[in-house]
Amino acid sequence: MTTxxxxxxxxxxxxxxxxxxxxxxxxxxxxxxxxxxxxxxTAKEAVAIRKAITAHRxxxxxxxxxxxxxxxxxxxxFIAAENDALEPAxxxxxxxxxxxxxxxxxxxxxxxxxxxxxxxxxxxxxxxANSYRTLKACDERxxxxxxxxxxxxxxxxxxxxxxxxxxxAINVLLTRKDEISTxxxxxxxxxxxxxxxxxxxxxxxxEAAKSAAVTQPTVKTGVKTKLVFTVINPELVxxxxxxxxxxxxxxxVNAGVRNIPGVEIREEKGF
Length: 271
Description:
With 271 residues, the protein is mainly α. The chain folds into 2 domains: 2-117, no CATH class; 129-209. It is built from 7 helices and no strands. The longest helix is centred in the N-terminal third of the chain and has 86 residues, at 40-125. The chain is elongated and about 165 Å long. The model has no long low-confidence stretch (mean pLDDT 85).
């Protein structure tokens, strides 16, 4: 307690050496406020006042430095003692911070690996619904997805991201099945309507043919109608309606021809 009292007394005595400078500062303030610049002479006087103020500031600062330099030396000694006392603590802080940082980095690495693993599983459930054209194909894909999900560990099955990917894929397939069913229903209805139109068309044509039929005369005249034909260009007659000519073939064989397509030529002995 005595030491603190003595220190305060010393500080008060040193502060007292600076206090008288305030009187000079007040004098300079009064001069500055009362001085008016009206010509070159009064302007020069103002410059002199400014120099006096600057010099006064320097004088007060130097007086303070004479006192505080001693305190600065003491402060430096206290800071050095503080640093020496804290050196082990600083090493301890560095050590524990390095461990915390290493742990955080390891946890981040594990999190990245887990995120990549989850993303890989999610990708397996990704389903492009438009690539499935039939109900059977949708059902087969749905069975694959359910099998894949059932093979996952219980931990992965409870994962929110994986559950969402699985549920989304199933819902996409269900929506696609609805679209296919609707399209097939529409096609069936179109086919039924087309068949109905065809039947109606055939019935109308049959009715028209019946109405257009020529009624046979009721009086018997003895006149009969038959179809006749005349070959006007033999070369155009289809091969299926022609018969080979024995006469022409015989003439060709006698003339020395031995190779006729579709005709077997051989020698036979006889009397």
